[in-house]
Amino acid sequence: MHSVTLNNGVRMPLLGFGVYQIPDAQECEEAVYTALKTGYRLIDTAAGYLNEEAVGRAIRRSGVPREELFITTKLWVQDADYDRAKLAFNKSLEKLGLDDLDLYLIHQPFGDYYGAWRAMEELYREGKIRAIGVSNFLPDRLMDLIVHNEIVPAVNQIETHPFYQQTESASFMHEQGVQHQSWAPFAEGRHDLFNQERLTSIAQAHGKSVAQVVLRWMIQQQIVVIPKSVSPERIAENFDVFDFELSGEEMQQIASLDTGKTVFMSHLDPVFVKMLGTLRVEL
Question: What is the pTM assigned to this prediction?
């Protein structure tokens, strides 16, 4: 499996499997089981996805040795303080049926994420987490966290796709030694991504799908990517991206699609921030 080395020396697969928006327990379990049997070793979930238990069942069913897996979950906003973070971490471990985690992320840059980070630093030092990081942190919040704490986040998982490439954030993260990870690599199909003219032309030239081209474009930039699907055919297709390479010109053609704008929501929008801050998930 192709991988990157995080700032603490831990190896993380470049390609993984995400389970966002698969709340149905049986469907999620089957999708993760299929992904593991296909060859994926990075599985990305979150307390807020309400499917950690299904992920855990799939892991146990698969028979894949624990040491081959890289399991990520995330701390939701309601638990973003020192004491609740530790409780939430243990609850996630219990649901996943694991003794430790490979990566634990602060899901959103809201609430007392300073207190949460210090709890995570302690869990990391105790050997319960191999790496700690964040998700959805803009450069200013990321720098603030770095300056006022001891451990630099290993990963920042942010919206990244051809229409919102996050080039400034990517450059900043590279300078700080923080690994760039993408969520929503296909923009959830918005802007008609799967029929976009430049992407379809590149895909046809390689005998690949648009989805495979997008994943390959990310991988060639050393961006960790976690596509999601519940279709066995799509799960296999998304994994089949290591037998071709995009040219520099093709990479530039995809780069030209960047609008510099989110297609979902802005973490600078007070209405959105309030919604996230008051959203409670069942733990």
Answer: 0.97
